[in-house]
């Protein structure tokens, strides 16, 4: 599941932090340079993935250099372009050789493959100013020698396993995109990069604060998925890839600055597009039906519970809701629903506009369907738990591990 929470906010905070705290910097010994006008002699950046970017500059001029600033923009989808500006702390002089280190352990990190554009402005006490041309760095996980395989808008990067391993994952990913387009009309508009780590341990080395259960991460604003797939768990990998890729497509199709999708729709699309519901989820769903302990559609619109069993049931129910909507009302209505959400519509009004019922109406129609589907008698007194409505997370970028990947990666099972 994608929790859209942190990076967008953290980037905005980041600008503030950078502007208001002394950046880590260290002046190197200055070699006197004689130049006739204010000049940037050298500019470079060194990456130490996943924690550091070290920006370096050498500048000289006839008058004392008094002001150096680094400007950078993270290449990601956003509704407002954010340029961060760093005031460099240095000893003024006619020749300056200094650096600024972006320590992501303090600010939050970037995924492998993220690109950062940067440039410098330098001023002297005579009022002269120079600005360097923008340059870019790709913040790659260079601990490994990556191979790449490109097909249509997808690129798979991998370093362990042969070409047939990558081809098998690629065809599973392409099939998932075809299936999604057939069921929902949604398709990938922008490229997606998929980084396949050999295992969970390698993947966690790409994270600044890894959690032991993390099996993958999804970064829709960057068009990047990172996932650990052991070659002897290929089937799990294919399902997880289909799931995460669906989140990318749905993000591209529905992005708007106002509202996220209801969680049952977001996760239901991803679950449904994996293919047949896994037996363990079927078991959870049947148990909930037998116990008459289903969670209401309205509750499932909020982020899912952190409780493992409740989360599993939420995913299983979301699958079933999507199956119900797609098989009963068809592709065109689902595309219509996604399009309506892309315009920022509220949950009930979007459903009402497209299907003629709101979330409670959906609940009422889905109940007999799901009892019949799993051949469990619907209790006459079937009732729903009290409504549990929470504010859905505000729109923002996602930099939080996908919880489904998390619990399927092993440790939660
Ligand atoms: Zn998910």
Task: Give the structure's gist in a few sentences.
The protein is of the alpha+beta class. The protein has helices spanning 7-20, 104-107, 163-184, 200-204, 234-254, 263-272, 279-290, 297-300, 308-329, 331-342, 347-355, 359-373, 403-408; strands spanning 39-48, 52-74, 84-87, 93-103, 114-124, 129-131, 135-139, 147-151, 154-158, 192-197, 216-219, 224-228.
Write up this protein.
The structure is a single chain. By secondary structure, this protein is α+β, with helices and mostly antiparallel strands. The protein has 3 domains: 7-139, Immunoglobulin-like (Sandwich), CATH 2.60.40; 141-257, Glutaredoxin (3-Layer(aba) Sandwich); 258-394, no CATH class. 38% of the residues lie in helices and 22% in strands. The strands form 2 sheets. Strands 1, 2, 3, 4, 5, 6 and 7 form a 7-stranded antiparallel sheet that branches. Strands 8-9-10-12-11 form a 5-stranded mixed sheet. A hairpin with a 4-residue loop joins β11 and β12. α3 packs across α5 and α7 (279-290) crosses α9 (308-329). The model is unreliable at 1-26 and 383-413 (pLDDT under 50). The structure holds zinc ion (ZN). Residues 1-2, 243, 247, 267, 270, 402, 404 line the site of zinc ion. Zinc ion (ZN) is lined by residues 1-2, 243, 247, 267, 270, 402, 404.
